[in-house]
Structure formats: C-alpha cells, structure tokens
C-alpha cells in the first residue's frame, strides 16, 4: 500500500453525487477540515497581523520564487515553525545549482527551521540551473530521509502538463510514490490551482482505478476578482479551468468583486471522498482567503436550495 499523509489516513468512502442541503453543508465542512495555505517569504509575515490567523498545526507551503535566495525559504520555514505552524517548503529541482547546495538546503531546513517535509516540484525554469532536470533525477541522487525529511508532498497535474503527456505523468507519479515508500516517507499530492472541479474529479478517479490511493490537497484560488484570476490562469495555462473561468468572464460587472471558489467546493463536496482536502492559493489576499475557509471549516455558512451558492454568515 502506498504511503499516505497521516492526517488523512481514513478509509476511502465515496460521497453521493447529490445530497440534501443539510448533508451537503456537512460535507463541505468536512472537506474544509484541515485546509492548507500557500505563501511566499514576503506574504508569510501577514499571518502575524491578521485578526484570526490559522490554527496551530496548519500546513503552510512556502513558494521558492525564481531568482530569490533559498535562504528566504529557510528563514520563513523557521518563522512559521516558531509560530506553531507546519511549514512545507517548496523544493524546486530545476532551481538547485548542485548536489552540495541541495544537501545544505535540506540540512538547514531540518536543523535550523525544524521542517520535516517538502513539496517537491520540477519548476518552470526554461533552463535548469544544475544537474536536476526533474524531480525523479533529484530523488535518484539524494536521499531526503538521510537529511531529516520524513514527509513528501508531490505535485499533481489534473489538467496535464505542457511538457509531458498523461502516460508520462502517471509513470512519474508511480515512481515518486514508490520512492517515498522505499524511503518510508509519508506522501501526498498537491495540485495546481483549479477553476473547475471536473478535471480534478476525473483525474482522481483515474488514479484510483490504477490503484493510486493517496491523499490529495486540491489547489483552489482564494477569493479574488476576475481580473486577478484571469492573470494567474493565463500565466499558468491550466487548460480546462481557463475555459471554465471564461464562461464567467461575460459577467463583467463582477470584475471588481472578490469571487470565492464556490463552484469548485460544491462539486468537490458532492462527489469527493475523505482523501481530499483543500489547499488555498490566496491570490486575493491572505486575509480574505482565511476568513472564507475558516468560516466553511467552522460551519458558519449556508447553501442555497439549488446548491449553487454558499453564503458565509456575517
């Protein structure tokens, strides 16, 4: 059996495709339990200034921005750990200049920052900075466990990848999970952000048919206006989700209004299982994102009778 993230290790239990409003509200609350958040070294400091910060133990993922020193990621992980969070630093294979630097980063993450997990991604750099063209090359060269890493988050691509076909992505995922099992690392998947839940649900069903049953954190954009969402969608080229966002684009009067990911949450809660959790990219600001997902987790919301909208209680 493939390793699973300990917090989500309950047996798989499919949810019904349709539900009464009360049941759906409970499913939404369950889906939002244990959500996680993405920050940059610069935006992490906002967690100290907001009125209702995340609960202790919340997973906070730290982006390694292109061209920025990895020391910023390490310092942010240390700050998050000191404030009671569970830091998950990004480790970008194509941004690693050499093997010695990689082992130094890992040692500093575990010893200085107290982190025991990383999100391993290939990265979007056109030219790799060192010996690692992808994540498998890095895993084949360095044992994460020997440097204190105990948990491994792996990027998931429900809408595919511009540089790899579906079969290649599936084979690579199986290889990474097998590596995690050999190294006795707890493993889970974290997806790119989605504006449409259907590609995620289709992808998740296909993985399960292949016997891949590991926890998945589904990437969603926090509340943001359509102009901001368009910018990120087009820059990342996330396939079917761009088409889903385009259908909303005709409602131009909403461009200035923050739009939480209501459609995605409703679809995931109606069709998902207990191995799915939510991971928020706060494009519209950390404060708005936290207020919305905390309200859903606490049950401070209502679903309309048509199951088309979620209203957060004031």
TrEMBL record:
Tree of life domain: Bacteria
Ranges of compositional bias, category Basic and acidic residues: 1-13
Keywords associated with the record: Oxidoreductase
Claim: Oxidoreductase is one of the keywords in the record: yes
InterPro entries listed in its UniProt record: FAD-linked_oxidoreductase-like
Region (Disordered): 1-20
Descriptive protein name: Methylenetetrahydrofolate reductase (NAD(P)H)
């Amino acid at each position: 059996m493939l390793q699973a993230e300990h917090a989500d290790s309950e047996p798989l239990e499919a949810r019904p495709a349709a539900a009464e409003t009360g049941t759906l509200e409970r499913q939404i609350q369950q889906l939002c339990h244990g959500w996680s958040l993405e920050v940059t070294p610069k935006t992490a400091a906002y967690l100290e200034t907001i009125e209702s910060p995340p609960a202790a133990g919340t997973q906070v993922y730290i982006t390694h921005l292109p061209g920025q020193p990895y020391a910023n990621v390490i310092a942010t992980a240390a700050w998050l750990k000191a404030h009671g969070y569970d830091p998950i630093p990004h480790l970008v294979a194509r941004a690693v200049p050499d093997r010695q630097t990689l082992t130094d980063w890992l040692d500093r993450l575990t010893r200085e920052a107290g982190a025991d997990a990383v999100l391993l991604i290939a990265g979007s750099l056109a030219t790799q900075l060192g010996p690692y063209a992808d994540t498998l090359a890095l895993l084949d060269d360095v044992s994460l466990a020997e440097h204190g890493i105990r948990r491994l988050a792996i990027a998931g691509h429900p809408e595919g990848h511009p540089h790899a076909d579906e079969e290649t992505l599936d084979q690579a995922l199986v290889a990474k999970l097998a590596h995690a099992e050999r190294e006795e690392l707890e493993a889970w998947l974290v997806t790119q952000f989605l504006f449409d839940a259907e590609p995620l649900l289709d992808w998740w069903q296909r993985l399960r048919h292949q016997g891949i049953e590991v926890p998945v954190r589904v990437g969603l954009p926090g509340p943001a206006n359509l102009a901001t969402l368009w910018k990120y969608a087009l820059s990342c080229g996330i396939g079917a989700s761009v088409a889903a966002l385009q259908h909303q684009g005709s409602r131009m009067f909403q461009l200035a209004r923050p739009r939480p990911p209501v459609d995605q949450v409703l679809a995931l809660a109606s069709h998902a299982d207990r191995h799915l959790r939510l991971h928020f990219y706060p494009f519209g600001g950390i404060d708005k994102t936290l207020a919305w997902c905390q309200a859903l987790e606490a049950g401070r919301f209502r679903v309309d009778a048509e199951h088309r909208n979620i209203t957060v209680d004031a």
